[in-house]
């Protein structure tokens, strides 16, 4: 009997890839705005109002935004939730409702508060550690092509044009990215 | 014999980490995009507010000068200074004009390396001109005049409203504002080919001003017009107007490129502009105009006006008894302030609430109080005060079917109006001319005239175009990077016999491709920021006054909320000041903001903008200078009648007196002398306008601070050293 060949470390001997887990807690309860205590200061609320108004595109300045804009606004205010988290605080609306249903400022506040309270926005170290996974040579760089592939196929996938935009001018002549610099770039928005 | 090695994701062991990492990056990316969008919005607001308030200022100035003309005694100096800009209605036969514009005795030197033209013009020559300009050549003034003369002859044959058809399956290409940006025109020709028998074009106004190659664009457009008179169409825009050109750079461009004959060229262009058609109708279904419509727009009236009588759309042919549109520029605190309720910049997406009077009911601006308050000795004010004229009171013209007032309004509306989201039609006070018109007006207009679409330009749009009013109105803008590198794309539209608009976008400037997304957005923001800081500094006195009112305990500090409301009450730009405070309040005044209050004196020190040599000059005079730079420069150019770039000391003094009357300010003789001394260093009694304006250009102290500092300190990390040189 031929000796068992030494298997490649990356062979299919590994168990089948587990279904990618959702990044947040597995059981997400239905979001109830009434259970959220607002802890913002009046100053903060004024700031939010200003930004809210900037996103308000109603003809008569009704202080309302669409569901689709809610995520953008929360992000513009400095949080970085996942899309799933956003959909959760919106009450898991249907896709077709995203551009038609509106919310006003009072409805927005508890949603924003909930996102602000959620732990874990990812530290610099988290990032770097995550990217290190793709650092085959352990030299502080990842292949741009690999990263693009990952961003477009895993997690909350990005579109090709989004990936292009993010990666523009990040790759060096060999198509490699220094990921510590890359993370600093992303976080310094 | 091994198991099949699957070529699946090689990182199975690290699958969880990989995904987590991906999600992290994606989250941060989405945040980055959202923040960028927010910054883009208010950067846009800044540029647009300031652009439109500039237009408004220009109109006010012009109206004021017109009023002076009507009310000063003929002998007064002030009148002489400015009378020449109103000399557009001299009765002069064409033969005399042709003598004045004669190019024949202009010699072209052997050293001239630019294109030579022979008439009648051929296609090769037109194409040759495009090539020459691409290679930065300049056309000799002899040929310019010759070309313009031919153009003038051609335009006089055209009706007010071009009527064209897309028969023979020809698609017509329509371009919006070009504003002297030759690169964009070249890009359009590159993508879409130049005009030809198979490729008709329509250019919808605003060919000139702001960009640096306005005259070259005109030459190209006119050449193709002459070569293909049935395939090339031009509409007049609000910038095809010598009054507007005085402020927005075209006059300056021509005079500096053509030192000897610039004045003649400009005069001839005045005539040409007035002969440009006002509108174009395609297949009797699509109307193309530069600005827009109002609830009184009537194409049959427009078809009959004598358009060439309107050298400037800002002034009707008859000088007497006109309606003055506009308010005093500084005293918004008057009762007129109810007209200026602005929460946000009135764009289509977030227009203002409306509390203004109908256009017809505006009373004549009364400038007489200003004249009485001035310190100019020679001025004699006529006793005749203008009363509240309006069409309803103007009985002398009621017998005419169309009054010249109405005619004027028709043209003004066509060239200056903007669409709005609400129904109705109200005066466009932001620009100072034309209307804001609503979807109901569009609907009514289209029905009455049996049309289906309005294509217009006049407003810069981020994507180069924008539909509104249920897609019945299309705004088309063809000058990319208008506000700054990376600010917007340009677009042109192709219309075939099916009359379905097919839009093509582009963005000129090779620099764009090299900048990363962050960098190009950053440039725009920095630019807007600089402009805004200048404006803030120029309003220092008023701002300090507003702050003091809110600083009851006189601590030199105001809360953030008060700071924002005070700034808005003075600047009236409808900007989100709170969001922007991190760029505007920097340095020590930000660091020391305990409990979010701001030390406002410190803040002005940080804004710390001063020109050279400015220390001995009176503070309020300095502010006036900064605030009304553009107006001052415009007046200089008007006063400089021989276009030499120099004005005498005496004229300089008179200019300041004019300005002081206009602004209702007292400016002493000494203060003016101080200013003059600063600049007339060789003391020969004449002042170089350019040098003067340069001496008072604001230098930005901030640029001397550390360059690497992040623009937006919303997050705690300050890691933007990677951004490199912000001044690429």
UniProtKB/TrEMBL annotation, chain A:
Give GO MF terms, alphabetically.
calcium ion binding
Q: Which GO terms describe its cellular component?
A: myosin II complex
Name the PROSITE patterns on file.
EF_HAND_2 (PS50222)
Using the UniProt annotation, give all residue ranges assigned to the region (Disordered). 1-31
Enumerate the CDD domains for this protein.
EFh (cd00051)
Q: Which InterPro entries match?
A: CALM/Myosin/TropC-like, EF-hand-dom_pair, EF_hand_dom
- Bias class Basic and acidic residues marks the residues at 1-10
Where's the EF-hand domain?
122-157
Record's protein name: EF-hand domain-containing protein
- Which species? Champsocephalus esox (pike icefish)
Give the source lineage, highest ranks first. Answer: Eukaryota, Metazoa, Chordata, Craniata, Vertebrata
UniProtKB/TrEMBL annotation, chain B:
Q: Name one GO biological process term.
A: negative regulation of MAPK cascade
Matching CDD domains: EFh (cd00051), IQCD (cd23767)
Q: List the residue ranges of the region (Disordered).
A: 312-347
Enzyme Commission number(s) of this protein? 3.1.3.16
Q: In which domain of life is the source organism classified?
A: Eukaryota
Q: Which SMART domains match?
A: EFh (SM00054), PP2Ac (SM00156)
> What PANTHER family does UniProt report for this protein, alphabetically?
SERINE/THREONINE-PROTEIN PHOSPHATASE 5-RELATED (PTHR45668), SERINE_THREONINE-PROTEIN PHOSPHATASE (PTHR45668:SF15)
**InterPro entries hit by this protein:** Calcineurin-like_PHP, EF-hand-dom_pair, EF_Hand_1_Ca_BS, EF_hand_dom, Metallo-depent_PP-like, PPP_dom, PPP_phosphatase, Ser/Thr-Pase_EF-hand_contain
Bias class Polar residues marks the residues at 336-347
Q: Which family does it belong to?
A: Belongs to the PPP phosphatase family.
Check the record and name the Pfam families matching this protein: EF-hand_7, Metallophos, PPP5
What protein name does the entry list? Serine/threonine-protein phosphatase with EF-hands
Catalysed reaction(s) here are: O-phospho-L-seryl-[protein] + H2O = L-seryl-[protein] + phosphate; O-phospho-L-threonyl-[protein] + H2O = L-threonyl-[protein] + phosphate
Give the source species: Champsocephalus gunnari (Mackerel icefish)
Key words, A-Z: Calcium, Hydrolase, Manganese, Metal-binding, Repeat
């Amino acid at each position: 009997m031929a000796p068992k060949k030494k298997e490649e470390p990356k062979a299919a001997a590994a168990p089948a890839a587990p279904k990618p887990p959702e990044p947040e807690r597995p059981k997400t309860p239905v979001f109830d705005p009434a259970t959220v205590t607002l802890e913002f200061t009046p100053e903060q609320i004024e700031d939010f109002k200003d930004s809210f108004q900037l996103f308000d595109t109603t003809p008569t300045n009704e202080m309302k935004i669409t569901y689709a804009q809610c995520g953008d606004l929360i992000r513009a205010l400095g949080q970085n939730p996942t899309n799933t988290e956003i959909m959760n605080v919106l009450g898991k609306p249907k896709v077709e409702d995203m551009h038609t249903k509106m919310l006003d400022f009072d409805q927005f506040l508890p949603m924003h508060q909930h996102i602000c309270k959620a732990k874990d926005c990812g530290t610099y170290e988290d990032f770097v550690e995550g990217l290190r996974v793709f650092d085959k040579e352990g030299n502080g760089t990842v292949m741009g092509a690999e990263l693009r592939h990952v961003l477009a196929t895993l997690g909350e996938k990005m579109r090709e044009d989004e990936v292009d935009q993010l990666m523009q001018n990040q790759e060096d002549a060999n198509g490699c990215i220094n990921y510590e610099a890359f993370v600093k770039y992303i976080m310094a928005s | 014999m091994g198991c099949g090695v699957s070529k699946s994701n090689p990182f199975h062991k690290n699958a969880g980490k990989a995904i987590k990492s991906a999600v992290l990056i994606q989250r941060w990316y989405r945040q980055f995009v959202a923040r960028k969008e927010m910054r883009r919005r208010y950067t846009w607001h800044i540029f647009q507010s300031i652009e439109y308030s500039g237009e408004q200022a220009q109109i006010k100035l012009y109206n004021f000068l017109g009023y002076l003309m009507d009310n000063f005694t003929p002998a007064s100096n002030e009148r002489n200074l400015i009378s020449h800009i109103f000399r557009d209605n001299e009765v002069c036969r064409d033969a005399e004009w042709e003598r004045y514009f004669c190019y024949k005795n202009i010699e072209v030197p052997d050293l001239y390396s630019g294109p030579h033209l022979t008439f009648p013009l051929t296609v090769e020559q037109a194409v040759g001109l495009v090539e020459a300009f691409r290679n930065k050549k300049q056309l000799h003034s002899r040929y310019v005049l010759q070309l313009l003369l031919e153009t003038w002859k051609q335009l006089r044959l055209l009706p007010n409203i071009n009527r064209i058809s897309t028969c023979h399956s020809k698609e017509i290409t329509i371009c919006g504002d070009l504003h002297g940006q030759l690169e964009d025109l070249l890009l359009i020709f590159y993508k879409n080919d130049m005009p030809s028998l198979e490729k008709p074009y329509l250019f919808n106004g605003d060919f000139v001003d702001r960009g640096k190659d306005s005259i070259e664009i005109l030459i190209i457009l006119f050449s193709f017009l002459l070569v293909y008179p049935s395939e090339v169409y031009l509409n007049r825009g609000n910038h095809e107007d010598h009054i507007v050109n005085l402020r927005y750079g075209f006059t300056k461009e021509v005079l500096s490129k053509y030192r000897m004959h610039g004045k003649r060229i400009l005069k001839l262009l005045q005539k040409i502009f007035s002969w440009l058609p006002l509108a174009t109708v395609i297949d009797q279904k699509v109307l193309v105009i530069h600005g827009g419509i109002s609830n009184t727009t009537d194409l049959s009236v427009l078809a009959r006006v004598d358009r060439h009588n309107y050298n400037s759309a800002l002034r009707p042919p008859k000088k007497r008894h006109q309606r003055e549109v506009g308010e005093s520029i500084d005293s918004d605190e008057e009762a007129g302030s109810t007209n200026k309720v602005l929460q946000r910049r009135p764009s289509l997406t977030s227009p203002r609430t409306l509390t203004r009077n109908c256009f017809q009911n505006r009373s004549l601006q009364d400038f007489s109080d200003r004249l009485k308050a001035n310190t100019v000795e020679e001025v004699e004010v006529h006793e005749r005060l203008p009363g509240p004229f309006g069409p309803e009171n103007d009985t002398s013209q009621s017998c005419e079917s169309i009054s010249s007032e109405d005619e004027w309004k028709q043209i003004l509306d066509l060239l200056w109006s903007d669409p709005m989201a609400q129904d109705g039609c109200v005066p466009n006070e932001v620009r100072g001319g034309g209307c804001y018109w609503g979807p109901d007006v569009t609907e009514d207009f289209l029905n009455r005239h049996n049309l289906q679409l309005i294509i217009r330009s006049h407003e810069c749009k981020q994507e180069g175009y924008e539909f509104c009013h249920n897609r019945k109105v299309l705004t088309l803008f063809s000058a990319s990077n208008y506000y700054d590198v990376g600010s917007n794309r340009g677009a042109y539209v192709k219309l075939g016999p099916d009359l379905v608009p097919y839009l093509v976008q582009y963005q000129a400037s090779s620099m764009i491709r090299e900048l990363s997304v962050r960098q190009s957005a950053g440039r725009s923001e920095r630019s807007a920021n600089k402009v805004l800081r200048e404006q803030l500094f120029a309003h220092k006195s008023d701002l300090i006054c507003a702050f003091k009112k809110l600083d009851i305990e006189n601590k030199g500090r105001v809360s953030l909320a008060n700071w924002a409301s005070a700034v808005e009450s003075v600047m009236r730009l409808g900007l989100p000041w709170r969001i922007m405070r991190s760029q505007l309040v920097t340095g020590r005044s930000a660091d020391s903001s305990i409990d979010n209050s701001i030390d406002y004196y410190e803040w002005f020190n940080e804004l710390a903008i001063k020109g050279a040599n400015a220390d001995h000059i009176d503070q309020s005079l300095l502010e006036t200078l900064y605030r009304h730079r553009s107006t001052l420069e415009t007046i200089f150019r008007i006063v400089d009648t021989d276009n030499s770039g120099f004005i005498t000391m005496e004229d300089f003094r008179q200019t300041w007196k004019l300005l002081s009357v206009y602004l209702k300010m007292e400016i002493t003789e000494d203060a003016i002398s101080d200013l003059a001394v600063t600049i007339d260093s060789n003391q020969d009694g004449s002042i170089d306008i350019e040098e003067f304006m340069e001496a008072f250009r604001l230098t930005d102290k901030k640029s001397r601070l550390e360059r690497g500092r992040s623009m937006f300190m919303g997050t705690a990390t300050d890691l933007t050293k990677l951004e490199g040189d912000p001044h690429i």
